[in-house]
Design a protein that fits this description.
- The protein is an all-alpha fold.
- The protein folds into two domains: 114 residues, RNA polymerase sigma factor, region 2, helix turn helix motif (Rna Polymerase Sigma Factor, Chain: A, Orthogonal Bundle), CATH 1.10.1740; 80 residues, Arc Repressor Mutant, subunit A.
- 66% of the residues lie in helices and 0% in strands.
- The chain is built from eleven helices and no strands.
- The longest helix is centred in the middle third of the chain and has 23 residues.
- The protein starts with a helix and ends in a 5-residue tail after the last helix.
- About 23% of the residues have low confidence.
């Protein structure tokens, strides 16, 4: 299946104006990982910057969708980014705001999918340890660091849905407490409380499930 970047490129193409912008950006010393430069170039149709935006978050989005039981997480990830690129011209904000926007779209797609299927998925699978998708150094990452890939879904399945929602948005999506609160329609204090209870539950469940290697 073509990626959203390939579909967008086929529809729009990379025009001379976009190429000229990219050349000016490189000449001005803009780093390859400069979000603002890539966003502007992508909004002007530059395929390589569209791909950069896609690749910067696609793995996290797919992992988030898998955790929440999406039957075809890769296909749904592509659908998320098709919607992102369809409305990219209207987006304004920094990298954190972009990440929040992308995961808001993913979250809404999940809700729509669950409603269509009218049931919650009981078994889910991850292709890599959850911690591999997380930038290290926080308590949440440490709490799941020892969990083997094949058991991540089992551990997360022990959490109540509201705790699982908060934890995956905080870890996989790397969203702030405020962004998670806005997305889930909760108060920041409630999000912090759910996150704390989720971490405590994980710490209790890991020994019970005998998932940590000696």
């Amino acid at each position: 299946m073509p990626t959203p970047v390939e579909l967008r490129s086929a529809h729009q193409g990379a025009d001379n104006h976009s190429v000229a912008f990219a050349s000016r950006a490189v000449g001005a010393g803009v780093h390859a990982d400069d979000f603002g430069a890539h966003l502007t170039a992508a909004q002007r149709g530059l395929a390589s910057s569209c791909r950069w935006l896609y690749e910067s978050l696609a793995g996290r989005v797919a992992g988030y969708l898998r955790v929440h039981g999406a039957p075809e997480p890769d296909d749904m990830t592509n659908e998320v980014f098709l919607r992102v690129f369809d409305h990219l011209d209207s987006f304004s904000g920094d990298e954190a705001a972009f990440r929040s926007w992308v995961f808001t779209i993913a979250h809404r797609l999940l809700i729509d999918d669950h409603r269509r299927r009218q049931r919650r998925v009981q078994t889910i699978e991850l292709s890599a340890p959850l911690v591999a998708t997380v930038s290290g150094g926080d308590a949440e990452a440490e709490a799941v660091d020892a969990i083997a890939a094949q058991h991540v879904a089992l551990v997360l399945a022990q959490l109540p849905p509201d705790q699982r929602d908060v934890l995956t948005l905080r870890i996989l999506a790397d969203l702030s407490v405020e962004h998670v609160a806005e997305l889930l329609g909760k108060r920041p204090g409630a999000v912090k409380s759910l996150q704390h209870r989720a971490i405590e539950n994980l710490r209790k469940q890991i020994p019970k499930l005998n998932l940590v290697s000696p």
